[in-house]
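Team,

Forwarding the record for the chain on the shared tracking sheet. I've put the sequence and predicted structure together so nobody has to dig through attachments.
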Amino acid sequence: MGETTEELMREIDDTRSSMTGTLEAIGDRVSPGRVFERRRNRVVNWYLRTKDRVMGTAENLTDRAGGTAHRVSDVPVAAMETVRSNTAGAPLVTGGIAFGIGLLIGSVIPPSRTERQLGQQAQHAVEPVKNELQEAGRDLVQNLREPVTDAVNDVKETARSGAEHLRERTVESTEEIKQAPSR
């Protein structure tokens, strides 16, 4: 062997330290909260990247607006030309921009009596569906609560069991070292 008791004790301490870090890393990696956080971050980042690709960043929009602001009378022509050049090959973006322009124009013109009536009818028709969706969301949260709690408890138990096993193994190794004859 050729190792002294002090060297073996140091090696055991190093192993214990690295195992503790490993167990903590495993617990962090499989923690339902951390898994949810990582997935949420991926979705948020995807949304922001997609929004920037479709809508452009604030700097790009400022540059475009500044370039055409001095030609107020040419705004509709310049805007349509900008839309055509920036949305070539992107029909969804073109449709979204057309919808936005229609929405702006529609917000300037006051609604007619028929439009108000249709809006009220649509609101009444959507109300039951809204309540059903809210109830379904509550049910989903309630149904997921138990599996998530079980998963958290499983991770805790696995980490505790691993730490206990490591502690037992360390005690056994320490005893073996103490009982081994010194050379």
